[in-house]
Amino acid sequence: MTLSIEALNVAIEGIPILRDVSLEVGEGAMVGLIGRNGAGKTTLMRAIMGLLPPESGRIRIDGRDMAAVPSYRRAGLGVSYMPEDRRLIPELTAEENVLLPAWANGIKDAAARLEWIYAIMPEVREFRDRRALQLSGGQQKLVALARALMPGRKLLLLDEPFEGVAPVLSRRLAEVFGPLRQAGVAVVLSESDDTHSADLVDRVYRIERGAVTVG
Ligand code: ATP
Predict the structure, then answer these.
(1) Which end of the chain is flanked by fewer CB atoms within 10 Å, N or C?
(2) pLDDT at position 164, please?
(3) Domain that holds residue 89
């Protein structure tokens, strides 16, 4: 799966937020999107997910223009987004939260997918029957990643996964990202600075006041 963004402009309530953004993510590549709070990282991810309509420019996934593809079709294309806040359903168990996107999108091989997720995150299997509200913040973060992985078999957008995370869990998250690459999942990972992503990513894009540069 490749992601190609060309001269993308996005405004929110008439205010230009993203300005002529271009960005490429190759097959199985891991790309960093680095910028301070308010720079536009979340806005770019939401635009890729089809949650914000572009004013102009192109978003292509495997060469296909996403303009006419509604947001709810992203999961079927293997494209998934992990928002910065976890947004788990507190009353559901960890496993039910992970399976939710499979139910919502009619993913047929959900059981096999779940096994793969548990293989790379065995700790989630261990607490799968606990309700989300009973989990620690770190455990919830792992569940949110597991949930994103359910549909995200091709392209995963991770919005500040290391934000507010204790060092032990940061290392664990970094370990989990390794197998994703082997599985050919392309990843866009945002961070406010290079602290955690520097050793992980193949390429860095910097975003400042809605404008993106390479390197
Ligand atoms: P953060 O880590 O703080 O989320 P970010 O880089 O993800 O930072 P965005 O959330 O994309 O930044 O915000 C980019 C800009 O868009 C900010 O200036 C923000 O104030 C503005 N913005 C985002 N959402 C809205 C909204 N719903 N209404 C008005 N302005 C918004």
Answers:
(1) C
(2) 87
(3) 3-214
Determine if ligand 1 sits within 6 Å of the CB of residue 152: no
| pLDDT tens figures, 163-215 | 988 999 999 999 999 899 889 899 999 999 988 889 899 999 999 999 999 98
Q: Say what the pLDDT of residue 141 is.
A: 93
How many domains, the chain? 1
Predicted TM-score (pTM) above 0.85: yes
The pLDDT of residue 178: 87
Segment 118-135 mean pLDDT: 97
Rounded Cα distance, 142 and 172, in Å: 9
Distances (CA, A) of 71 to 45, 80, 175, 194: 12, 10, 30, 30
Is 35 a pocket residue for ligand 1 (Cβ < 6 Å)?
yes
Q: Residue 73 carries which side chain, given as an amino acid letter?
A: R
Distance of alpha carbon 96 from alpha carbon 110, whole angstroms: 12
For 2, the token pair is 């490749």
CATH value at residue 22: 3.40.50.300
Q: Is 39 in the pocket of ligand 1 (CB under 6 A)?
A: yes
State if residue 157 touches ligand 1 by the CB under 6 angstroms criterion.
no
3-state helix/strand/coil string of 20-83: EEEEEECCCCEEEEECCCCCCHHHHHHHHCCCCCCCEEEEEECCEECCCCCHHHCHHHCEEEEC
Protein residue with least CA distance to atom 28, ligand 1: 12
